[in-house]
């Protein structure tokens, strides 16, 4: 497989030179000169329209970025991802999360687990034995199911989440619950994560006696006393695992049919990603544009602004997905990289954040490329979203305004339009970002699927707790 540094690819130098020609160009002028711009720079994927006309780029930029992808061997890497090859080279594992949502073509163990999950979820929802479901997990064992449950719960069950080892978190999740009617779902791929194990032990101490587990460490889950153990596989990374039994608590909250729709949404995006040419391939475009902004227009951060209240947890979810995957400084050949990798991802619920940190987005000294996520269910939300993106792009032109009232504009953003918050659309959306992350990892020549950067802190904390340090 190609492990040539991107900076050694001819198109990298061409892009750097091309970026120079963008220095004095303002988005306002581009829109004025080309009325069709908002029609030209859009692409469709199942359920979504991606509008990147407010990005500081042109057709040549996209051609050069596509060359870079070709020079990095993108098509071959994509095939390796989708066919379950061991592309996580440092751990000698596949990153085959797409198999979790492959429907009838999924591996037998996935189909069997889904069938088992359906039985358990439907049992929990119909028998009314449990009044409270509490998911104990952290990172990928928490953020995905938490996002799904928050966005799509139908209210049939009270499903809560605790991730922090601070007892207040578990205390809140158990508030008002009774041990006999509470189901604790301990989700941990390793079943060794300190915070999750501490919360599971604390739940036992509180009196909980109904435990399910989702883990690849069956022995430890059994020893803990879980009565149902759903599998996790080493070919699925934690931050890509929401499609597996890790989504159990979310499936309890939204119903199993909706969970299946979520998987179908992921599959829709996979098919688009596998098939579409680069210039029409939405996750690839998201990745290429991110690289253009990070590496050639020197933007070290990226904001995600989701305007639907249902998607308020999306930025936190994407922080793990993007920064744990691509926050790397060593390439696949073990060399220190000489270019920026993942930008710092941050964001919020747009209709709320426009009354706080958007001041910086509009008039601060940092230029922050943003993704605006619109679900068009509400005219007020959509109008505000569009207004923010236009203000960022166009700014003000009136020289007579005092300086503090002027907006510089020329601040890039993209929009993702969905027509509704549905399980299927959420599956489509998450898979778009997953493939964006993969594509960027390939272009940056880094392994997006390990996370050794989280280990040192864990080891030191242990030593501090035992007094060894
Ligand atoms: O410490 C980071 C991490 O390993 C993440 O990659 C993972 O999603 C999370 O912790 C939880 O890990 P586990 O599921 O093994 O408890």
List keywords for this structure.
single chain, 469 residues, alpha/beta, six-stranded mixed beta sheet, five-stranded parallel beta sheet, 11 strands, 46% helix, 12% strand, binds 6-O-phosphono-beta-D-fructofuranose
Distance between the termini: 43 Å
How much β-strand is present in the residues? 5-15%
On the 0 to 100 scale, the average pLDDT is 97
The total count of helices amounts to 19
Describe the largest sheet: 6 strands, mixed
Low-confidence stretches: none
Query: Biggest sheet, strands in spatial order?
Result: 1-2-11-10-8-9
Topology overview:
Blueprint: H1 10-20, H2 27-33, H3 37-40, E1 42-45, E2 48-51, H4 59-71, H5 74-82, H6 108-127, E3 132-136, H7 143-152, E4 158-162, H8 167-174, E5 182-187, H9 194-206, E6 211-215, H10 218-224, E7 228-231, H11 248-254, H12 256-275, H13 282-296, E8 301-306, H14 314-326, E9 344-349, H15 350-353, H16 358-363, E10 370-374, H17 379-394, E11 413-417, H18 423-443, H19 455-466
Parallel strand pairs: 3-4, 3-5, 5-6, 6-7, 8-9, 8-10, 10-11
Antiparallel strand pairs: 1-2, 2-11
Helix pairs in contact: 1-4, 4-13, 6-11, 7-11, 11-12, 12-18, 13-18, 14-18
The protein binds 6-O-phosphono-beta-D-fructofuranose (F6P).
């Amino acid at each position: 497989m190609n492990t040539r540094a991107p900076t050694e690819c001819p198109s990298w130098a061409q892009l750097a030179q091309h970026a120079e020609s963008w220095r004095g160009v303002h988005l306002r002028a581009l829109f004025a000169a080309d009325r069709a711009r908002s029609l030209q720079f859009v692409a469709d994927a199942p359920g979504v329209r991606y509008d990147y006309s407010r990005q500081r780029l042109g057709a040549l930029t996209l051609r050069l970025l596509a060359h870079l992808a070709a020079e990095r061997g993108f098509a071959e890497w994509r095939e390796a991802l989708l066919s379950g090859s061991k592309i996580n080279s440092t751990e000698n594992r596949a990153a085959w999360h797409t198999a979790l949502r492959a429907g009838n073509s999924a591996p037998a163990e996935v189909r069997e687990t889904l069938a088992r999950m359906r039985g358990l979820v439907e049992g929990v929802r119909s028998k009314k034995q449990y009044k409270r479901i509490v998911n104990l997990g952290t990172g990928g064992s928490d953020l995905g199911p938490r996002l799904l449950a928050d966005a799509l719960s139908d209210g049939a069950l009270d499903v809560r989440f605790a991730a922090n080892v601070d007892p207040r978190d578990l205390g809140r999740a158990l508030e008002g619950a009774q041990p006999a009617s509470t189901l604790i779902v301990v989700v941990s791929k390793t079943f060794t994560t300190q915070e999750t194990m501490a919360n599971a032990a604390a739940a036992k101490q509180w009196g909980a006696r109904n435990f399910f587990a989702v883990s690849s460490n069956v022995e430890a889950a059994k020893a803990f006393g879980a009565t149902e153990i759903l599998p996790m596989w080493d070919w699925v990374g934690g931050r890509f695992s929401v499609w597996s039994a890790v989504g159990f608590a979310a499936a309890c909250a939204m119903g199993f049919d909706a969970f299946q729709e979520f998987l179908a949404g992921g599959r829709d995006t996979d098919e688009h990603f596998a098939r579409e040419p680069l210039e029409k391939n939405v996750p690839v475009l998201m990745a290429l544009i991110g690289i253009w902004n990070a590496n050639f227009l020197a933007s070290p951060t990226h904001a995600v602004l989701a305007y639907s209240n249902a998607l308020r947890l999306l930025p936190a979810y994407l922080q793990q997905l993007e920064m744990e995957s691509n926050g790397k400084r060593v390439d696949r050949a073990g060399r220190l990289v000489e270019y920026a990798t993942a930008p710092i991802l941050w964001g919020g619920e747009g209709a709320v954040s426009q009354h706080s940190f958007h001041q910086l987005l509009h008039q601060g000294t940092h230029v922050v490329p943003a993704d605006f996520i619109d679900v068009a269910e509400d005219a007020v939300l959509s109008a505000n979203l569009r207004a923010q993106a236009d203000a960022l792009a166009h700014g003000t032109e009136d020289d007579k305004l005092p300086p503090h009232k002027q907006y510089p504009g020329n601040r890039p953003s993209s929009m993702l339009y969905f027509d509704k918050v549905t399980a299927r659309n959420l599956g489509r959306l998450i898979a778009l970002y997953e493939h964006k992350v993969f594509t960027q990892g390939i272009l940056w020549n880094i392994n997006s699927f390990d996370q050794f950067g989280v280990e040192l802190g864990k080891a030191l904390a242990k030593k501090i707790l035992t007094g060894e340090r």
